[in-house]
Amino acid sequence: MGRIEKTVFISYRRTNVPWALAIYQNLTIHGYDVFFDYQSIDSGNFEKVILENIKARAHFLVILTPSALEGCKESGDWLRREIEAAIDEKRNIVPLMLEGFDFNSSLVKEVLIDKLAVLKSSNGLRIYADYFFEGMDKLRKRYLNVALNDIALHPLSAKSKETTEAKKATVSELAPVETNALAKQEKFEFNYALNRFRVPILGCIQAGEPIPIPPNMDFSSYTIEDSIDIDISLLPTKEKGKELFALKVQGESMIDAMVNDGDIIILKPTQDARNGDMVAVWLSDRNETTLKFFFKEKDKYRLQPANPTMKPIYIDKSESLVIKGKVVMVIRKVDRISV
Description:
Layout: E1 7-11, H1 17-29, E2 33-35, H2 46-56, E3 59-64, H3 78-88, E4 92-97, H4 106-111, E5 125-126, H5 132-143, H6 158-172, H7 179-193, E6 196-206, E7 211-212, E8 227-231, E9 245-250, E10 264-269, E11 278-283, E12 288-296, E13 300-304, E14 313-316, E15 322-331
Parallel strand pairs: 1-2, 1-3, 3-4, 4-5, 6-9
Antiparallel strand pairs: 6-8, 7-12, 9-10, 10-15, 11-12, 11-15, 12-13, 13-14
């Protein structure tokens, strides 16, 4: 039998962190040397570290969900670049197909052309959350236990090795991923396959005067315990990414913008805004948050309500103001009408 390699690179979308981490932990326990980009590498080293790790590892696992390949339409998309690098380096490419992924879907067919067409001819494995450990056994014994005499592995540079080892140390401290977390992600992606997009509701935001926020409020956290499903077709075309979040509105300062008390706003995480954008703002010096139209003036910021009975809030530029998200959609609460 030829040379058996136990070096693995995991390619995945950020929204599939639970799956990537669970696969990493399982393979590592069984003696594999695994790399995946957990918590992004700094931009200065990103390309070098990623591409060197692909060249240094024999096996290339790519996690495929119904939406995973959507961004691959763009030539600069990093999942696409990772797959192309693995193809160029003639790695043992194993597509890990999760619930709802279909090589025959119109989205996938549209993307897997030219060089990427190799992906659909690779020996793939379908994995389900309920049978995760059985799937991993099959992955190790059948898909990774293969002779790879023709694969040339390249050593990491000193800097890339340092970064790689630091990433491994960080990941090794994380708690094991529970299968119920995989099931939640699986359901999330299955909804996407049905053209439904699940957006987590992270809490409430005041649409009146700023109010104190809880100390544990984290706008970037992800949970689907409290969420709302939206038909993908209703979202603005440019906002079909999967990092949106939702907040429930309290107050009436934005009523002239058709945002009422009890409505749910869908936001795109961002720290930048143009004048006139409706944003969720965190005033960290005051430990307060609010929903307003944003305007940058000469020496201050103006947070403008959409209610003629309320005055704007002015924030000196010396004060801390952090934009946490820009509103891309409003879901109206309709009160029951008595007849």
